[in-house]
Predict the structure.
Amino acid sequence: MVTCSVSCESKRKGWNIFSDMLPLMSVISLAGMVISDVLANSGRFDSPVTDMMAPAMILIFSPSGSRSPGKRSVVFPLLMTVLAITVSVIRIVVMMTNRHASFPFTEYLPALLAAIMLVYIGVKAMVKTGAPVVKELHLSIFFILLMVAVYNDLVPGAIPLLFLFGSSLLFYLYLYAHAVRREAPVSTARKRSGSQVKIAAPARSGDEKADNFGMLYSRLQTLFDEEKPYLDENITVGDIAKRLYTNKAYLSRTINEHTGKNFCQFVNYYRVMYSMDVFKKNPWLRVSELADVSGFHTIVSFNMAFRLVTNESPGEWCKRIRLELDTKKTAGC
């Protein structure tokens, strides 16, 4: 059991490190795509959208900073990294062997990227519980840029190409900034051992069944305090039950016996407490960013859960905490 625990912990840390490296891998892929495009086209930058959308998809597919990354969650980012590097290498090889050879990937890349995006949405939709797989804004801009790139030849010239380059670059920079900002507070939280959040003391009873409930609840608290599975917005009672080697009904009853809450309320409590902890250390964060890093599907669900725990809206609480922090800072000066 101890060996298994150490092995699982090592794997989890490995996936965390890999997930943290995805923004850097995206930048490297972007540089490779752009440089190979310029070299293969004798100094011309002919396909700015596809060159930037492939690295951008690494960021879109990256597991949110609020999630506990695992092997399955990095398959698509890894696929896009391999694709971008492969295309870059092929371009350079083609350029070195025959400068006048055509490069068919330029024509087919938009369709390939669109197909990969649709496959990703389809795969993720099968395990989602209601939240959009890819943010609507990101998805809309992605397909609009691909469509414009496909029909770009109808309006040739430097100005349309410059427009495509500028809009694609802005979209990529936005995704990169969003990914880095989203990851920062969670990376900090991973490095420190936060104070444990306790909802209620385990029940004490001479009854064996009550003792079993107490032991399970203690293990549940340890899991939530140390590994923070509640940051995964798709977490289910079944997932937690498997990790604790029990069944869903028994786990749900244990939570209810000790807290009076159902599983969703229990998870949301931890998420709200985590968001408050993150905000106190990063008071510049917006409410939408807090919801994202805390594992909530939407701002609406975050607002409802936050109000149930604190009797305040997130906006009101954040404003009050900022004022308190500013007052302490002023007093300190």
Notes: Residues 2-191 form one domain. Residues 1-8, 192-206 have pLDDT under 50 and may be disordered.
